[in-house]
Write a structure and sequence with these properties.
alpha/beta, TIM Barrel, 9-stranded mixed β-sheet, 25% strand, globular, binds pyridoxal-5'-phosphate
Length: 421
């Protein structure tokens, strides 16, 4: 089910024609669909039923307060990787006991903020972090619930920049060392072991690596229980991939993922946590942009857009593909022609697509990048002093700006001059 469809020849987000948003907010702008966010969250909770579980949305994929509130109100937990994300989740009304704190480099200040505000668990990634957390919690007279993130040494078979479960990645504790570190955790003041955590990477298009990792986690659960640890929660991470093209690739569905979870760890009587980001937010958003110029190139025409790599960095950073749709539906029978689709930034890397077949387009036409709801706005910057891209949330026929574009004045005001200048 797709909530970005043509109606009467115009691309809509749910019931809202995209040109209406472009006219009022300007472009570039991210547009999110409430119905898609809700649907994807529900697919996961239904896939894990009847196991006791909590779906913790990975805030790093889309941290807008409105998106977090929408999912939090449905009962979602949150997976955060910084104090900033923790405070966003809290500001969106998500209680601390539904927030898990992941990440390799949590600082003592960040630990303190989460312990003060309330936290479901820290997913601890190293021995030095474990000792630091013990000191911080003990000094506050608090107890930090923890899991240890184990690195199961499986190949996630995804892009190398987002693969996290091989033994040479920076993440987690080698699974072979887990027993020793759990033994230390049990001895440390201010620490309470509650479970095991694993996250092997992002944009996985195959269940096999998950299966392998979760099977290892199940074995480890039995071992640690025999050692006397109360393993009552398993955090299985995120990483389920989405289709970035509408044609061939078909990543596994949450329902199949849920069945695999039940098969590998369902018998252990643990509460299951998962941390999906991309699969909930990715296809819930488009980046809407206008053509500024069509420029004659040596080989083909350049489509120069008002969106650039600072608004959507995935193509230049990961070589990622995003489908690009003309907002006005091309009449039947129109021959597509290949374009190099580029942004305004002064870097050759600011290229969205090369030789992309699109119907003939002209200056002023609108296009939409699909699958831009995850790792889009959160990675945006103001490189080239381009105003941070705004965000809009649609619900049925209604829409609202959920992050406004800053004015040039506001951007200038953030800098200050030292007294000697
Ligand atoms: C990035 C990340 C996620 C989310 O990954 P997706 O591919 O967006 O599902 C979940 N957990 C951790 C620890 C992460 O770093």
């Amino acid at each position: 089910m797709d909530h970005f469809l043509y109606r009467d020849g115009v691309l809509h987000a749910e019931d809202v024609p995209l040109p209406e948003i472009a006219a009022e907010v300007g472009t570039p702008v991210y547009v999110y669909s409430t119905a898609t966010l809700e649907r994807h969250y529900r697919l996961f909770t239904e896939a894990l039923d009847p196991l006791p579980h909590l779906v913790c949305f990975a805030v790093k994929s889309n941290g807008n307060l409105a998106v977090l509130k929408l999912l939090g109100d449905l009962g979602a937990g949150m997976d955060v990787v910084s104090a900033g994300e923790y405070l966003r989740a809290r500001a969106a009304g998500v209680p601390g006991d539904r927030i898990v704190f992941s990440g390799v480099g949590k600082t003592r200040d960040e630990m303190r903020i989460a312990l003060q505000g309330g936290i479901r668990q820290f997913n601890v990634e190293s021995e030095p972090e474990l000792r630091a957390l013990s000191e911080v919690a003990a000094s506050m007279g608090a107890v930090a619930p923890i899991t240890l993130r184990v690195n199961p040494d499986v190949d996630a078979r995804t892009h190398e920049k987002i693969s996290t479960g091989k033994k040479d990645n920076k993440f987690g504790i080698p699974i072979g060392r887990a027993r020793a570190v759990y033994a230390e955790a049990a001895r440390l003041p201010g620490i309470e072991v509650v479970g095991i955590d694993v996250h092997i990477g992002s944009q996985l298009t195959d269940l096999e690596p998950f299966d392998e990792a979760y099977t290892k986690v199940a074995e480890l659960t039995a071992t640690l229980r025999a050692d006397g640890h109360d393993i009552r929660r398993l955090d299985l991470g995120g990483g389920l991939g989405i289709p970035y093209t509408r044609s061939n690739e078909a990543p596994p569905l949450p329902l199949d993922y849920g069945a695999m979870v039940k098969r590998t760890v369902g018998h252990l009587g643990c509460e299951i946590e998962i941390e999906p980001g991309r699969l909930i937010s990715g296809n819930a958003g488009v980046l809407l942009s206008s053509v500024i110029y069509v420029k004659e190139g040596q080989e083909r025409e350049f489509l120069i857009l008002d969106a650039a790599m600072n608004d959507l960095v995935r193509p230049s950073m990961y070589g990622a593909h995003h489908d690009i749709l003309p907002v006005e539906e091309p009449p039947a029978g129109v021959m597509p022609q290949p374009y190099d689709v580029v942004g305004q930034v002064c870097e050759t890397g600011d290229t969205f697509a090369k030789g992309r077949p699109l119907p003939p387009l002209a200056a002023g036409d609108l296009v939409a990048f699909r699958s831009a709801g995850a790792y889009g706005a959160v990675m945006a910057s103001e490189y080239n002093a381009r105003p941070l891209v705004p965000e809009v949330l649609v619900r049925g026929p209604d829409w609202a700006v959920i992050r406004a574009r800053p004015s040039y004045e506001e951007m200038l005001k953030r800098d200050s001059l030292p007294a000697w200048l």
